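Tokens help. Our protein:
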Amino acid sequence: MSIQSDHGGEFQNERFEHFCEKHGMKHNFSTPRTPQQNGVVERKNRSLEELARTMSNENSLPKYFWIDAINITCYVLNRRRPILSHLKVFGCKCSILNNGKEQLGKFNVKADEGVFLGYVIQSHAYKVCNKRLMTVEESMHVVFDKTNPNLQDQVSKNADDEDLLQEKNYAAEKQSVVENQSTKKEKQPTKKKEKQQLT
């Protein structure tokens, strides 16, 4: 297996070369100033950048969250058979429950306002920015703001897309069953006729 890229620093470095060697990939380089030779790699890289930029600008997030935007873009694009129900809108508002990380008084607020930044691959947790503490943290105890119009539109669109996909799959399976049954019925009478002819 081989890949081809330009001489950009994101591709031409020791870490990436080690990765290629470990996975048995040959890394070829294109001629300088000829991006048309790079094909899939450059297109995929540009897609990641464009999606991350769009998500960040949609919610007016600071540029220093760019790596989180790239990570969540990779996460979404790498789902082979997408289950969209757990996906949230990048940068949407959320409440982070204080579940023991700080001692609270009787009348203190139990949740902090936050911004959703992505998913933790190693566990079932969300990556969020706590606005009060100005820290990025991982938590399962997150409630997403359902009054956020962007979030509502996205969730309903995702649900509609999932329903449509299921309907198409069901219709295709049903059609396949009908075709198989009709094929079997057509074959059965011919066998009876052959038996009658033999007798």
Notes: The chain has four helices and seven strands.
